[in-house]
Write a structure and sequence with these properties.
The chain has 217 residues and is mainly alpha-helical. It contains 8 helices and 5 strands; from the N terminus they run ααααβαβαβαββα. The longest helix is centred in the N-terminal third of the chain and has 19 residues. The radius of gyration is 17 Å and the shape is globular.
Length: 217
Amino acid sequence: MDGVLVDSEDYWHVAEREEILPRVLADGSPTPELDEVTGMYYGEIYDYLAEHYEVTVDKAEFMALYEETAKSIYGDQVELLAGARAFVDALRDAGVSVALVSSSPRDWIEVVLDRFDLAFDLIAPAEEFDGPGKPEPGLYEEAIRDMGGTVDRAVAIEDSENGVLAAARSGAYTIAVRDDHNADTDLSAADLVVDRDDPEALFAAVRHRVDRTSLRE
């Protein structure tokens, strides 16, 4: 969802850099690169920070801070990225099942789906998965199983380093979307990198992969 359907990464990056991280890390502590945590479930972001940096708040306070920030970002600030609605609708109209596999919790996802009237065949939030989230592959593996699919026929679309790693490690054909917010992000684990300014190329890449797997049946 974040950075693929809506422009939330632009807002999260500002909030994390200017508000959240300064409030939860000790004064003078090194600050992580945002690519280290982008794409991760926010509960696991705390665990990562606590392991690698000096954190000054408990997990409950940290998560409450994220939840408060999310209300503003998803309820008021985000907009659909160009071509996102048409992309999802075109795939579903073509008979391709589409899942939303996200590190955002279900209530944040539902705000976005309700605001923009989007529909998916499966919603798979990391908070409902019994195992580690992105960059580990389990969330994708379970979503593929729940869709009744197989990994050799799955296509994943991601924009963060952690998301790309999770999708690639699951064995899904992984397409990374390059945009201003991730201009310097390492997306090398993806099978293909597509520019956000060319949504038709993204759709064509997915359909080409779907058609190839269908021909092998």
